[in-house]
């Protein structure tokens, strides 16, 4: 390890230990590296500017953030909840099953796990806590687990960022997340069913047939967004980046014009919240560009590729090693650091072994989602606690079956790449 990389690592870790915003920590560590190497500090502006303004795909990120915030502010979550209650509410543990199905639908519109937990998840928790059969920990655990569907089922903000880092096809990544996403949802519903039967959790009251048309009508328009987005992308009507603009416009028309659920005051709040969320992501991206410059200058990705080659890893062995590494690092590091700092270091080794970048990307994103639901960093646990007051310990006690299920699915996806690649290849993706 060179002196420059050592100083970079110390500043980065020190900044995070002092709870400095992660984007600032990354920028500070990059500047420290340039100072130690006695390089022009103007490289910071050059790397950040080139990285941000030469990546058209990144335009999708603030637009998907805006679309998710519009839907959360515009009663869309409640409408989807009522629609899903018709479909699965009569199952044992109906409210928990409804939450999972709502997350599937909402995932097709937002691309964000945090937005899922803060929107539909909050609606479901409030309903569950009205009934004594649902413990606080169980209600929180179901919402936290189902929120991980957001970045797996397309569209997906992490997949957009991974595509920027790796050069993989955004459209192929989106398709690659469909089958794993529905498998996740199905397995979660099975877990809920066994727990609900064991604890004799209630079914939801039967909704009279006469009320179905109104509920279906209320939920039909939000359900049209995933169809419009994916249909538009794969028909060639618009690019994945343009799809983000379509999603934002679709959400704005629904919430503001059709449902009339947005006041000017609410709309301004949505704009400000979206600007803050986008700014946080942009700062992290800016920091990642200068860090990646440092790692490339020091030959870290190439050294990683040579090390992997010297270890004679098979594709499966390499992917298992990557999974283990991310699961451990996910206990301590933010998702953005893993995605923007560690993934670029691993990509040359993945390419050397012939690992498909779409398969690799979906595995990486699922690893990130598992990191969101286990301590000590588990961001979804902290978000849900902040919104509901449910202690993290209670959620973790009830959440281990969902965590175990995700780990088993991750293993299956690693051993059987076609779980990810079957749909993209069916739609014409050539691989690698």
Question: Any overview of this molecule?
Answer:
The chain is mainly α. The chain has one domain (40-426). Helix content is 77%, strand content 0%. The chain contains 21 helices and no strands. The chain has helices spanning 3-17, 22-36, 42-53, 60-73, 76-88, 94-110, 113-128, 136-147, 157-166, 170-176, 178-199, 212-235, 240-258, 264-297, 300-310, 315-329, 335-352, 357-371, 379-388, 392-415, 418-426. The protein is globular, with a radius of gyration of 22 Å.
SSE layout and pairing:
Elements: H1 3-17, H2 22-36, H3 42-53, H4 60-73, H5 76-88, H6 94-110, H7 113-128, H8 136-147, H9 157-166, H10 170-176, H11 178-199, H12 212-235, H13 240-258, H14 264-297, H15 300-310, H16 315-329, H17 335-352, H18 357-371, H19 379-388, H20 392-415, H21 418-426
């Amino acid at each position: 390890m060179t002196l420059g990389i050592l100083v970079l690592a110390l500043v980065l870790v020190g900044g995070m230990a002092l709870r400095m915003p992660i984007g600032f920590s990354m920028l500070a560590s990059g500047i420290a590296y340039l100072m130690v190497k006695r390089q022009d500090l103007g490289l910071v502006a050059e790397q950040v500017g080139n990285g941000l303004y030469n990546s058209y795909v990144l335009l999708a990120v603030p637009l998907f953030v805006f679309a998710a915030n519009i839907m959360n502010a515009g009663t869309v979550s409640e409408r989807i909840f009522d629609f899903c209650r018709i479909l699965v509410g009569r199952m044992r543990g109906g409210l928990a099953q409804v939450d999972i199905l709502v997350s599937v639908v909402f995932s097709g519109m937002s691309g964000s796990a945090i937005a899922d937990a803060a929107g539909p998840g909050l609606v479901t928790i409030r309903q569950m806590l009205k009934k004594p059969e649902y413990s606080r920990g169980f209600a929180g655990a179901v919402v936290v687990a189902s929120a991980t569907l957001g970045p797996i089922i397309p569209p997906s903000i992490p997949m957009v960022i991974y595509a920027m880092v790796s050069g993989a096809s955004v459209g192929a990544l989106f398709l690659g997340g469909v089958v794993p996403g529905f498998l996740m949802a199905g397995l979660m519903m099975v877990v809920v069913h066994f727990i609900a039967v064991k604890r004799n959790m209630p079914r939801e009251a039967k909704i009279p047939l006469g009320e179905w048309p109104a509920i279906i009508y209320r939920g039909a328009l939000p359900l049209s967004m995933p169809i419009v987005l994916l249909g538009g992308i794969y028909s060639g009507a618009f690019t994945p980046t343009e799809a983000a603009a379509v999603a934002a416009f679709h959400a704005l028309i629904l919430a503001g014009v059709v449902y009339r659920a947005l006041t000017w005051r609410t709309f301004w709040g949505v704009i400000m919240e979206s600007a803050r969320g986008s700014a946080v992501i942009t700062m992290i991206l800016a920091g990642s560009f200068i860090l990646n410059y440092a790692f490339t200058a020091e030959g870290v990705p190439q050294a990683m590729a040579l090390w992997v080659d010297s270890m004679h890893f098979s594709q499966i062995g390499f992917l298992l090693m990557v999974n283990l590494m991310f699961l451990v690092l996910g206990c301590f590091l933010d998702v953005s650091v893993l995605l923007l700092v560690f993934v670029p270091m691993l990509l040359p080794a993945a390419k050397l072994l012939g690992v498909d970048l779409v398969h690799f990307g979906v595995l990486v994103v699922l690893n990130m989602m598992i990191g969101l639901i286990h301590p000590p960093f588990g961001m979804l646990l902290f978000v849900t606690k902040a919104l509901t007051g449910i202690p993290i310990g209670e959620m973790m006690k009830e959440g281990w079956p969902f965590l175990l299920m995700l780990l088993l699915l991750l293993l299956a996806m690693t051993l059987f790449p076609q779980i990810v690649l079957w749909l993209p290849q069916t739609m014409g993706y050539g691989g690698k």
